[in-house]
Amino acid sequence: MKDRMISAISLILILFACVHGHALAETTESVIAEGRAIFTDNMTPAEAKAIALNNARRHALEKTMGIQERGDDLVYKGSIVDEVVNWAARTHISEEKILESRWEPLTSGGMAWYTQIKSTIAIKKGNKDRSLMVTDVSVTRPGHERGDTIFHPGENIQARVKVSKDSYIQLFGIDQNGLAFRLFPVRMTAQELLYPGESFIFPTEHEMKFGIKIRVSPLKGTDRLVESIMAIARKKKGKLLEKEHIDHATVTDIMRELSSKDPADWAVKTSSYEVKY
User: Fold this and answer.
1) Which of 56, 111, 170, 242 is the most exposed place for a label (fewest CB within 10 A)?
2) Are 217 and 182 contained in the same domain?
């Protein structure tokens, strides 16, 4: 009888280990992908390289996940940014090697930076815990809770964020090429715990009095552009991209760093706006 009980317990443990192991298992895939960035007067060579690498990574992830590849001229607006960053809950770029990186002439004139990479991408099993969510992100004129999302050059804007669980907020500005710029926290600001039902506002009236402002302006030679503010909620205080890439960070840099975190510990939501003359 005792032997049967031991055998039964052993069988249960084996089954549990198999199920548990399957839930945590990852499959990996190696892919080669390329990306380009058309060089413009509003762009530095370093930014062109960062944008091309960002596009190459996106193409590699799209291939791995069976998603139809979108062009290098894709506008990184709210829904696209959220999609790419949330891939961090399902994938992880474990290795990345740049195979080729160079300028290339365009048939229409001008130049583009070309990058080809080989990525090893791990596909995570299981579902993301969705209990932590950024329930709302809005971009408004200072002092307004809601309003028009079309702004004019020189106007100041304000971000408002709400969450479903206690968390710390980070804000990044995302341009239409996928470049990312830290907005909060920055010098003279501090992260504080945000509770459900409250609104995180940046910059506050007090911060604006000290010169901390988000001011919009269109690119030279354009009369319209799309920009976004991405809010990241995390259970732990801290800053993403603190060690590297901060000068020319991209959406996929943020995605890569989040992919190393527990998916239950973070959430993102992005709100886009237009700048017009």
Assistant:
1) 242
2) yes
Range of the domain at 106: 27-124
Residue 2 maps to a domain: no
Cα separation, 51 vs 151, whole angstroms: 25
Number of structural domains (the chain) is 2
Single-letter amino acid code for the residue at 53:
L
Q: According to DSSP H, which parts of the chain are helical?
A: 2-24, 45-65, 78-86, 205-209, 251-258
pLDDT tens track for 160-199: 999 999 999 999 999 999 999 999 998 889 999 999 999 9
- Two tokens at 15? 């089954």
Helix 78-86 / helix 251-258 crossing angle, nearest 10 deg: 30
What tens digit of pLDDT does each residue of 107-159 get? 989 999 999 999 999 998 766 677 999 999 999 999 887 777 899 888 999 99
- Beta-carbon contacts of 216 under 8 Å, excluding residues fewer than 6 positions away, are 151, 152, 153, 154, 155, 156, 157, 227, 273, 275
**In a shared domain, residues 265 and 143:** yes
Report the distance separating Cα 174 and Cα 249, nearest Å: 10
